[in-house]
Amino acid sequence: MRVIVGLAVVLTLAGASAVAWADRPGPDWMPLEQVAQKLKQFGYAQIWELQADDGHWEGEGIKNGRKMEFHVDPHTGFISERPD
Fold first, then answer.
1. What is d(CA 73, CA 24) in angstroms, rounded to the nearest whole number?
2. Using CA atoms in the order 60, 75, 39, 21, what is the torsion angle rounded to 10 degrees?
3. DSSP assigned state of 1
4. Fewer CB atoms inside 10 Å of the end CB: C or N, the chain?
5. Long-range contacts of 12-18 (CB under 8 A, 24+ apart)
6. Residue 72: which of 22, 37, 21, 20 has the closest Cα?
7. Which residues of 25-64 are buried (b: 16+ CB within 10 A; e: fewer)?
8. What is the four-CA torsion angle of 13, 62, 9, 1, rounded to 10 degrees?
């Protein structure tokens, strides 16, 4: 586990039995640390999954006491979310 700006961020990859590994961030993507900071500013108190997938950062965390799934645009930092 890696602690970034007070948030516990776990980088997860697909398991060995999965069909494909998680995507890799592009060279022009926001760094993981910057994404974690943005999520904290957006109200996330805890993040336990944050990975590159299908051209964006995605993960799960707690915001306002609710478990949420989120996607973060790797270029603009725009966050879209939904309850998990």
1. 14
2. 30
3. -
4. N
5. 12/49, 12/50, 12/51, 13/51
6. 37
7. beeebbebebbbbbbbeeebeebeebbbeeebbbbbbebe
8. -90
- Tens digits of residue pLDDT in 17-74: 333 445 899 999 999 999 999 999 999 999 999 999 999 999 999 999 999 999 999 9
Contacts 24+ apart (CB under 8 A), 59-65: 60/84
Name the E strands within 1-84: 2-4, 7-9, 44-53, 56-63, 66-72, 79-83
* CA 62 – CA 67 distance, rounded (Å): 5
What is the predicted pLDDT for the residue at 14?
33
- The C-alpha torsion from 49 through 15 and 19 to 46, rounded to 10°, is -10
